[in-house]
């Protein structure tokens, strides 16, 4: 207990002495080194706190700005995706309108009665190569009826249900159509055959026929199944089959079977 009392007495005396010393220095306008030391320490602490506060404020400001930039980026990405989708839709509409214009110009040149239809499904893969149209037996569509697009011949109806029909594409196996090759020197006749590939095989062309890449191929109209002069495709490569003494060629179809949306189908027999 005595030690504690002496300790408090000594601290009190020191405090009193420091207070008297401080008052005297202030009274005479002199700088108090202890006060200056304390002020220096406090000022250093204030500067540190201010710097830390400023850095924290800058950090949160930067974070807020970054979040705003990310939100703006996300919004722009959504708008960009929407615009791409809208452009694709407009492109498809324009393509369909062009097909409709071509069909309207083609229809007066087709014999017999033809009706418009929409392609509701397409299976261009090898081994299938069929499509489905929204016209069937109730509309007078029968198996064997030819189907055309504005670009040219598509194929033939394989099977007709009451409200829809399956059409076998021209490139499918076992499909064949008599054709004319419109060469600048001389037109030649032959047969275009489907091979289950993307190209048609042009066969049975006389060896002396002036056949070359770029020649247009159209229907010959032989047999009456297909109307004359419907575009079939364009010659891509020609060779001579010496075994059978005929010229052959690969023909690129006039119709893009994967992009079909509208067509015409012959009605009745």
Notes on the protein architecture:
The mean pLDDT is 82. Strand 4 (152-160) and strand 5 form a beta hairpin. It contains two helices and twelve strands. The protein has a domain at 115-269: Thrombin, subunit H, CATH 2.40.10. The longest helix is centred in the N-terminal third of the chain and has 74 residues, at 33-106. The protein is 37% helix and 30% strand. It has helices at residues 2-27, 33-106; strands at residues 114-123, 130-133, 146-149, 152-160, 165-169, 176-182, 187-194, 200-205, 216-219, 231-241, 246-253, 262-266. By secondary structure, it is of the alpha+beta class.
Q: What is the compact description of this entry?
A:
With 269 residues, the protein is α+β, with helices and mostly antiparallel strands.
């Amino acid at each position: 207990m005595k030690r504690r009392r002496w300790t408090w007495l000594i601290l009190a005396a020191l405090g009193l002495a420091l207070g008297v010393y401080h008052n005297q220095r202030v009274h005479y306008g002199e700088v108090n080194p202890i006060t200056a030391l304390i002020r220096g320490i406090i000022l250093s602490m204030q500067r540190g706190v201010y710097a830390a506060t400023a850095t924290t404020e800058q950090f949160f400001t930067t974070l807020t700005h970054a979040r705003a930039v990310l939100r703006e980026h996300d919004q722009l990405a959504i708008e960009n995706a929407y615009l791409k989708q809208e452009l694709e839709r407009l492109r498809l509409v324009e393509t369909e309108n062009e097909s409709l214009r071509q069909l309207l110009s083609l229809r007066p040149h087709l014999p017999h009665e033809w009706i418009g239809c929409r392609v509701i499904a397409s299976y261009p893969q090898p081994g299938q190569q069929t499509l489905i149209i929204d016209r069937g037996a109730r509309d007078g569509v029968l198996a064997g009826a030819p189907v055309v697009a504005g670009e040219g011949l598509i194929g033939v109806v394989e099977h007709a249900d009451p409200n829809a029909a399956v059409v076998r594409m021209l490139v499918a196996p076992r499909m064949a159509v008599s054709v004319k090759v419109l060469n600048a020197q001389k037109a030649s006749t032959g047969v275009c055959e489907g091979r289950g590939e993307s190209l048609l095989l042009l066969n049975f062309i006389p060896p002396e026929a002036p056949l070359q890449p770029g020649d247009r191929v159209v229907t010959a109209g032989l047999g009456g199944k297909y109307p004359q002069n419907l575009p079939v495709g364009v010659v891509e490569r020609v060779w001579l089959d010496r075994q059978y003494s005929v010229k052959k060629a690969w023909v690129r179809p006039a119709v893009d079977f994967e992009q079909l949306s509208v067509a015409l189908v012959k009605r009745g027999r």
